[in-house]
Amino acid sequence: MVEPMEKLTLLFRPATRDNFLTDLQKLGLVHIEQREVENTPEISRLAARIARIIQHREFLASRAALLPEPPQAIDYPGKLDELINRVDLLRVRIEGYETERTALEREIAAVERWGEFDADRIDALEQHNLRMTFHSAPRATADRIAQQLEADPDRSFVVLFQERGIVFFSVVGPLEASEHLATASEERLPERSVSVVRQRLAIVQSGLKDAFIEVDALIPYRNAMDGRITELQNQFTYKVAVANVQEGGDGHVLFLTGWIPERLRGGLEEFLQNQETAYVFDQPSAQDDVPVLLHNNGFARLFQPILRIFSLPNYRELDPTPFFAPFYTIFFGLCVADMGYGLFIMVGALVALALIKRKAARPLLYLGLVLGTSVMVAGLLLNDFFGVPISSVWGAKSALAKAVLFGDQSSAMYLAITLGIIQVIFGYILRTVNEVRQHGGASGLKPIGVVLMLVGAVLAGLPAFVGFVGSKLVDVRIGPIPIGRAIASVPDGPTVGLILVAVGFLLFLFFDNLTQRFYVRPAMGMWHFYEFLTGVMGDILSYMRLFALGLSGGLLGEAVINLAMMVRGHSVWGIIPMVLIFLFGTGLNLAIGLLSAFVHSLRLTFVEFYKSLEFKGGGVEYRPFQLKQTK
Description:
single chain, 59% helix, Alpha-Beta Plaits
């Protein structure tokens, strides 16, 4: 959920500004409203210095990752600025060497085709009234020039190399130009021979190696930069806060606008009562750009990083995280839908949780554990264990085999479509709540109309697929659930469904655009209804990807198993290639499956669900003005 915020206006004297802002930063509760002000030179300098030191810190960390055993981090014995300057100079040296190395490697590729030469000796030919020139021409033209120069005893023709049908050659002869060379292009000899360039490259590579040795010696001190980064970031946020202080009363009073969650107001008031300041709390107005702070339970909080990929909700919207989290979990599981893969993911997440103590990474590992559990459960329900039916592994009468509820393909397909219908309807219900909260009850009637039409269409349409063909009952079933017969058993279901569709259609038409006159709305509503009708069918059918991805993953898993067993043969030694093929194929299939599950579950959330919810986003994150602590 989005936490309620209160607007705060603070008034204080210029003489108390620095002390008051310092204490406010230590308290760390108020989100300061950012005005459109130009950055001062000091703010720009601090931002550049922070970015520079972060780059140095990441540079040392990236070098440490390349070592077999990164050295233990220790404190720097000297001044921290000295360490930062040393890393700065080394990075400049390394960047210079790497730039020159790239240029030299390109030069070698261009020069080595010319072979070895001595430019001084070539120039010395002019003392003997001779000149060596270099030319290129198509093969036929070069052959003709060679024949013509054979008749000239004062000139010699030498082919140097050929490249894509072009012949490069040299001609030695008198200083005056030869008319036979008019049809050839003159080439310039490189300034340096390949041996000279390679000598320079060796020097550059040696310098680069020495520079990296110096860098590696500084790796143990990489964490020492964290304190300076935090210190500069605190200075930066302080200077930004100062820039957002405004003057009033001809400069005799200063004021600052900020935001605070309602639940933290008591602690802030207690602080402000001991300060030389006046303050006013207000409720947000419709024009205010209110910062957003999310407050969810432990399960929904795991999915907040997924929400942030798209955007935070704006302050006046519902937070969609707790509403899409269960669907995302189910969708992810259905996209992979393999009990063996799910167990593998769960074990990997549990091992990572035991080994990785970094606080920021642990929520993602818990999310992996949740999604792995979903994959395992989906695989159990859909009868898949590393691409093999569960009944083939544990037996048809085993407890696991009895837990397979959606083993046939039609049940899996109907399950995917049903989930799509449920999520789309749920999205429109949430849109109704959003509209009523933001714009009043009348704004919620159009999405209610959509809900009525969708529910009515199911009640009216699904019974048409249920009945007897001859003596055989035809039903729409999702595993053991006879959903078709259940809907068909609703008294006068088709009639009730048609009534719901008609009522929903009228609500859609007459409450489509509340800014227009009542009698004008149906004309615009018809066009919007056409867009809705064509769009909602495509949205619901998009959920078929859950069935398709699960099916394709299972088929690939089965193919890997079959291939591994074929290699196994009857020899004992066949076990080794069998295991290798199984591990490689399973790992590749799992990687593809996880990527597909992440992307397609994301798409169903951000496109289909957000479309029905009419999620706008664009929220500004609540970032209190506070002192950061070194990690």
